[in-house]
Amino acid sequence: MLASEYWYRFPWLLLAAALLLTGLGIAGIYAATAGGAVPAPFLDTLGAKQVIWLLAALGVFAATLVPSYTRLARVSYFLYGASIIVLAVLAFMRRYNLEIPGFIYPINNSYAWIRIPGTGVNIQPSELTKIAFIMSLAYYLRYRKNFRTFSGLMTPFLMALVPTALIFLAADLGTAMLFLPILFLMLFAAGARGKHLATIILIGMAMVPIFYSSMRGYQRLRIDSWLLQGCAERMHFALSEPRERDCGLQIANCELKSRQDEVSSNSQSAIRNPQFSLTPERKAELVHEITGMWRFRLWQLATKISWGKDKPEYVEAKMRLFQTLDQGPGPKSFDALRFFFGTLLDNFGYQAFQSKIALGAGGIAGQGWLQGTQTKYGLLPEAHTDFLFPTLAEQFGFLGAAGIVLLYGILCVLGVDVSLSTTEPYGKLLVVGVVALVAAQSFLNMAMSMGLMPVTGIPLPLMSYGGSSLLSSYLALGLLCNVAVRRLYLIAPRPFEWRE
Fold first, then answer.
1. Phi, psi of 314 (to 5 degrees)
2. I need a surface site. Which of 198, 409, 449, 467 has the fewest CB within 10 A?
3. 491 falls in which pLDDT band (50, 70, 90)?
4. pLDDT at 46 (0 to 100)
5. Confidence class of residue 488 from pLDDT cuts 50, 70 and 90?
6. Which of 266, 263, 235, 241 has its CA nearest to residue 254?
7. Cα-Cα-Cα-Cα dihedral of 117, 120, 126, 130, to 10°?
8. pLDDT tens digits for 179-220?
9. Distance CA 270, CA 168 (A)
10. HSE-up of residue 405 (Cα within 13 Å, Cβ side)
11. Is 87:125 a contact under the CB 8 Å cutoff?
C-alpha cells in the first residue's frame, strides 16, 4: 500500500474526536483534584499524570497500526487464554483472601489490580481482557455459520461468560457487565437469528434473582440503594415542604433543620423540634404512598426471595422496617422508613445522590471552569474516575454534557462506517466489537452518573483517570484504525448476509 493511500484512508476525524475527549477528561481530572478555593498547580494534580498516560497510550495506538490486523488475528486465542489465566488467579485469591504484598492485594474490596513491582504502577488485567475477548470472538465467528442455530450460540456465550464470571468473582462488577452487550452486538452483526438472541435474553432475565442473591452484601446494597433512591427522594422532598411553608424562618435555617434527621435507633439522640413535625395523618399518607411505589414493591420482592447475607446494621434497619409496616401506615412506620433510608442511602447511595446534584447544578451553561461546588469542595467521591461526567457537566452544563455525548456518537458512527466499508469478515467483526465496547461502556457510565443504573465502578472510556483504562481504549481504537487504513476486499459474497 502506498504511503499516500495509507494516510488518505486514516480516520483523522475519529482520532480528533478521541483526543478531544481525552483532553476534556484531563481538564475534568484537574478540576476534581485541584483542591478547594485556590486550585493547586496542574503539575501537582492527577491531571499531569494522566498526560503521561496519554503519551504512553498514543505509543500503544501507533504500535497497533504497524502490523496488519490479519497478523494480529493469529494471536487472538493466545491473548484470550492468557487473560483468562490471570483472571482465574485473581478470582482464586479473592475467594480465599490471599495476598502477595506489593504485587496482588485488594483495593476497594476488589482483586482487580496487579502492581508492577518497583514502579508503583497498577494495571487492571480485565481492561485488556475486553480487547482479547473481542479479537478472539471475531476470529471464531469469521467463517462460521453454526451460530445461526441455538446450539451453535453456546460456544460464543461460553467465551463471554467465563471472563464475566471470573471478573465478578474478583468483585469487579462494573467490568463484568460489559461482555454480554459486546457479545450480543457482535452476534447481531454476524447474522445470528433474532429469535435465538431474544430467547437467551429471556433466560438471562429469569436468572436475575439468582444473580442478585449470589452477590456479596456490599454489591447487593448498591442495587438496593439505586432501586430505592426514588423512594428516598420522595420522602426528602415531602419533609422539605412543611419546613419552607410553615416555619416562618429564613430558608437557610429551614435547610439546617431539615438535616436533623433520625439516623439512629436511639430516639433520644435525635434532635427534633415539634414546630417542624409532620402530622400523624401526613406521615401515614407518606408511608402509604412510598411503600406503594413500584420501586419499593420490587425491592420487597427481591429481599424476600434473596438468600444472600447483608451487613448487620442494614439487616437491623430492614427488620425494624418490616415489623412496623406489618402494623400498618402510621408515625412508627414513618420513623422506621426514615431510619432505613438513612442507613441505606447515607452510605451506599451517597455517590449517586451527589452526582445528581452536580448534574442539576450545572444548568444549561454550567457554573464555570473550576467553579463546580460538588467537585471543588470534594463532595462528589471518585469525581476524577467513575464520576467524571457529572464533574464536567457541573462546570460546563447541559451544553458541555451534550457535547461529550456527541463526540462519543461521532466515534461510534465513524466506526460503523469502517465496518460497513470492508468485506473481510474478521476486520468487520473486530470493528463492531470495538464500537460496541465504547458505546456500552460510555452509556453505562453516564447512566450510572444520572441514577439510571446502579453504581458499579465503570470508568468513562478515553476520559476517566487511570492508565489501564486509557491504554486499553487507545489499543481498541488502534485496532479500529488498523482495519480502516487497510479495509481489505475479498472477491466473494459479502460476509454475514444470510438467506433464510
1. -70, -40
2. 198
3. low
4. 92
5. low
6. 241
7. -110
8. 999 999 999 988 888 888 888 888 888 888 888 887 777 778
9. 40
10. 13
11. yes
With residue 126 as reference, give the H or E element that holds it: helix 125-141
C-alpha cell at 151: 446450539
Judged by DSSP in three states, 35 sits in: coil
Question: CA torsion, points 127, 133, 138, 139, in degrees to nearest 10?
Answer: 120
The CA distance from 43 to 447, in Å, is 32
Q: Are 355 and 231 in contact (CB under 8 A)?
A: no
Measured from the Cβ of residue 370, the count of other Cβ atoms closer than 10 Å reads 15
pLDDT tens-place string over residues 376-416: 888 888 899 999 999 999 999 999 999 999 999 999 999 99
- Hey, which residues does 121 pair with through a beta bridge? 116
Rounded to the nearest integer, the mean pLDDT of the chain is 84
Element (H, E) at 450: none
Closest CA to 471 of 54, 161, 27, 11: 54
Instruction: Give whole-number Cα distances, 346 to 102, 140, 230, 444, in Å.
Output: 33, 47, 14, 23
Identify whether the C-beta of residue 179 lies closer than 8 Å to the C-beta of residue 133. yes
The dihedral built from the CA positions of residue 287, 289, 291 and 295, taken in this order, carries a sign that is negative
The secondary element (H helix, E strand) that includes residue 121 is: strand 121-123
CB-CB neighbours of 46 under 10 Å:
18
DSSP labels for 146-213? GGGSTGGGHHHHHHHHHHHHHHHHTT-HHHHTTHHHHHHHHHHHHT--HHHHHHHHHHHHHTHHHHHH
The reported pLDDT for the residue numbered 269 is 32
pLDDT value of residue 414:
95
pLDDT interval class at 161 (50, 70, 90): very high
Q: What is the full DSSP assignment across 86-100?
A: HHHHHHHHHHTT--B
Res 246: pLDDT? 42
8 Å CB contact between 166 and 87: yes
